Amino acid sequence: MYTFATRFLQLILFLMNGRMKTVNKEKLPQNDPFIVVCTHKSWIDVVCLGIALHPTPIHFMAKKELFNKIFIKKLFKKLNAFPVDRSNPGPSVLKIPLQLLKKKQVVGIFPSGTRNSEEKALKNGAIHIALRASVPIIPTVYIGPHTIRDLLGRKKRFIIFGDAIHVPKMTKDKEAVTEATNEVISKVFEELKGNI
Q1: For residues 6 and 108, is the Cβ–Cβ distance under 8 A?
Q2: What stretches in the chain show pLDDT beneath 70?
Q3: Which regions of 39-134 does DSSP assign to beta strands (E)?
């Protein structure tokens, strides 16, 4: 289902908007798990990231409210999305992504485009998961249309992958390490946006 949906949506977006450009895909770890942290404003950037990573499947962290209806819940699960309670994150938030990474899967987290406090919490979550699983974080930026209207306007689409960020082992000051890594991710986001 995931592969079919990826290919189908790739065709639809190509017919509407032309070919998407993927930059620095060669920087991605080969045959190893990682966390991809991508800018996010609409469903289009999520789909484009899935297309850019194909044939590697990505498991998306999505807010639990999207899983309220049975049909949508089943569809999202087939598309490799799993629910997270963003308003009340707890230890269980780590469980699913850690299990996936242990199986050498790729986990996607989308911190941007939300409230500032929620954005920071999601970035911090990615950092803690990466540390616990001993995997790198790949900062990624989507540049392009965020609406159907803009897609039809032929505004070009780009997915840009950054260099892998390896979270240093926690010292006594865990908060300082997390904050420093968070700042690195934010800085890389801005640098990647300036590449186009």
Answers
A1: no
A2: 86-92, 112-122, 170-174, 176-177, 195-196
A3: 58-63, 81-84, 106-109
What is the CA angle 23-26-32, rounded to 5?
A: 125
* Residue 66 exposure: Cα atoms within 13 Å on the Cβ side: 16
Quick: pLDDT tens for 109-145: 887 645 455 566 667 778 888 888 999 999 999 999 9
Residue matched to tokens 């819940």: 73
Residue with tokens 């892998």: 164
Indicate the residue type of 190. Answer: E
Q: Which two tokens stand for residue 122?
A: 């999601």
Residue 51 is inside which H or E element, if any?
helix 43-53
CA 90/CA 94 separation, integer angstroms: 8
153: helix, strand or coil: coil
Q: How far apart are CA 92 and CA 52, in angstroms?
A: 29
Contact call for residues 135 and 33 (beta carbons, < 8 A): yes
Question: Which residue bears the tokens 């990624």?
Answer: 140
Tokens standing for residue 57: 């499947």
Residue 50 and residue 9: Cα distance in Å, rounded? 10
Of the candidates 22, 35, 31, the one whose C-alpha atom is nearest the C-alpha of residue 164 is: 35
Spatial contact of 168 and 182, defined as CB atoms under 8 Å apart: no
pTM: predicted TM-score of the whole model, two decimal places: 0.84
Place of tokens 């996936």: 100
